[in-house]
Write a structure and sequence with these properties.
four-stranded antiparallel sheet, mainly beta, six-stranded mixed sheet, 114 residues, 0% helix
């Protein structure tokens, strides 16, 4: 299993970023996918999840209404559109094939700061 996340960076509060994760080495279109994040000094937090067909999505309360998870099974890719970012969103973001993040990629750093 390989998961390659990208799209992180430095953004001001209120700004937006779009994260991308490309998966390979497994049956992507049959696998629910997740975004997790880890803030400095904190544990891994499940942020968003999407069913294999993309018909069901769920979010942690802290990001509801601001983040949108989506996927393109033709491209073996998931996305995380992050809008109205706040400093508390600062974290390393990982894509994963399980809710606990046991199988995840290398992560991409998002820093929200003025």
């Amino acid at each position: 299993v390989q998961l390659q996340a990208s799209g992180g960076g430095l953004v001001q509060p209120g700004g937006s970023l779009r994260l991308t994760c490309v998966g390979s080495g497994f049956n992507f279109r049959s696998t629910p996918m997740y975004w997790l994040r880890q803030s400095p000094g904190k544990g891994l937090e499940r942020t968003a999840g999407i069913s294999s067909a993309g018909t069901t999505r769920h979010y942690t309360d802290a990001v509801k209404g601001r983040f949108t998870i989506s996927r393109d099974n033709r491209e073996n890719t998931i996305y995380l559109q992050m809008d109205d970012l706040i400093p508390e969103d600062t974290a390393v973001y990982y894509c994963a094939t399980d809710e606990q993040g046991d199988v995840r990629g290398q992560g991409t750093l998002v820093t929200v700061s003025s």
